[in-house]
Amino acid sequence: MTRAVWLLAGFFVVLSGCSVNEIVTAEQTELVVAEAPPDESMLLDIGVVEFETGIDENNDPEESGIYNEIRSAEVRYLPYHLKTTLQGTGHWGAVRVIPSREAFTDIVIDGRIEQSDGEFVVLEVIVHDSAGNHWYTREYETQTGISSYSDNRDKREDPYQKVFNDIANDLQAYVQELPPKTVSDVRRTTELKFFADMSPSAYGEHLDYDEDGIAEIVRLPADNDPSVDRLRQIRERDRLVVDTLNEHYANFYYGIAIPYHSWRKTAREESVNYRQVRRSAMMQTLIGAVVLAGSLAYDANSSSYSKRQMQRGLQNVAIGQGFEALIGGISRRSEAKMHLESIRELSESFGAEAAPMVVTVEGETRQLTGTAEAQYESWRRILKQIYEAETGFVETADSPDADPVRVAEPTG
Length: 412
Known about the structure:
The protein is of the alpha/beta class. About 55% of the residues lie in helices and about 15% in strands. The protein has a 5-stranded mixed sheet. A two-stranded antiparallel sheet has the order 6-7. It has a two-stranded antiparallel sheet with strand order 8-9. It is built from 9 helices and 9 strands. It has helices spanning about 1-15, 60-65, 70-85, 160-175, 180-200, 200-205, 225-295, 305-355, 375-390, and strands at about 45-50, 95-100, 105-115, 120-130, 135-145, 205-210, 215, 355-360, 365-370.
């Protein structure tokens, strides 16, 4: 009798501890914001390039949980949120998401998504200046917590906000250590690269490139160069084009914000539940097997009828609990598979909502499918045509792949 009581008592005590709940409190980093307006002559513009997906060529979504639909959206969504974080610090000039590294800006930020599943995020960030100098490559990561997706949280902050704040703080700290001349040279280099792109024959030799492609200022345009003001006006048009493309990114960002937030929240819950279910299932299965074996081996051949009845009753309870634990473990494993299936369905649904959008720039309607790199290249060709039309100076090109050379119309 005593042995049976202790057997069942031990079983119930251990079984009651099968459920293990995870409670994770997300780490936070305070964003460093400018205390006073910086000198405008020292403000650097930033371009955040669409991130790389980080998906392996042999990726199996069913095994990795990494879905192309999600990553294809994240490579545009995460850079735009980084842009808003950087812009909100007050340390920079214009901060834009740029369609390619060919856009003209002082600082270029590239990124690669190493992991992003709603619970964990790992980003690799590479920073260069306009001259091509590599500033640094760093990895940023964080784990979201139970309150990261709370309806009561600050909606301006992303569940991954710690990573974005870390990136912004590191960049500000790096630039703060640069000599003022270096900052000025970065700004001049950006401008000269634009001038050389518009008119290689006139400004191509103002910069010299070493074997690694790093640009160095050789000379500056003359103060009385009439083309400088004209090129600066055209550069403003180039910025307007990029700003228009940023409206496209903004529409995409705000358009998918709700489904993407819901997906990440659910994906995190599924991941946490999946781990809890696996732990609980293994524990229940083990306990069930032990109790079942112990109950079957228990000696029910007592000389006392009442004892035998009680012992058999306890044995049946133990056997029933053992089978229940075994079935519970199997049921929870099935539930875990349902969680993974739910993630897959949500990913497919999310991908359908993140469709390309149409933008209109200077009266012309273009559709941006995939990246906007080709779109931006077409607008750069238009800007060159504007420069040629305003100056009457036509660049010649020897390359067979170059744009057709326009011939000036006769004046009379």
